[in-house]
Amino acid sequence: MFIITVLLVITIFLQSALLMANIVLPFVLALSIKRIDNRSLLVIFLAGILNDILVLQTVGLSSLLFLLMTLLLYWYRRKYKIRNLVTALVIFLLTMVPYHFLVNKNINFGIIMFEMLAFTFFYYLFSIFLKEHKLIYD
Fold it and tell me: How far apart are CA 26 and CA 24, in angstroms?
């Protein structure tokens, strides 16, 4: 989990310094699809706080939305199994569009497409990394 936390902090700093798109949320959603436990929830909460501080948003808003989306994914995973990337991308779109509408007050589909690419990258990265270290729940 330490390596995932370090990668998340690097992602937060990369987003705040260079990118207009939100790559922290695709990271969090990919992690939530692959693994949800108490440590993951703590890391997601702290990532939201750090993200808000660095992006100069209302502190706690991202944490609240990240945890809410993680909770919804957890409830979905209890009933249905997310087996492939297509299902994960549909879930991603169903969470990103309301997120952009609530936080940014507009929906930019170019940025959402970039975030979908980031989500796909993180989804496969976690698939490989968590299977290799026997931390995946699938």
Answer: 6
The identity of residue 29, as a single letter, is L
Residue 26, burial from CB neighbour count under 10 angstroms (0-12, 13-18, 19+):
buried
State the pTM of this model.
Answer: 0.80
Tens digit of pLDDT at every position of the chain (138 positions): 788 888 888 888 888 888 888 888 888 888 888 777 778 888 889 888 988 888 888 888 888 988 888 888 888 877 887 778 888 888 888 888 888 888 878 888 888 899 899 999 998 888 888 777 766 555
Q: Supply the DSSP string of the chain, one letter for each residue.
A: -HHHHHHHHHHHHHHHHH-SS--HHHHHHHHHHH---HHHHHHHHHHHHHHHHHHT--TTHHHHHHHHHHHHHHHHHHHS---SHHHHHHHHHHHHHHHHHHHTSS--HHHHHHHHHHHHHHHHHHHHHHHHTT----
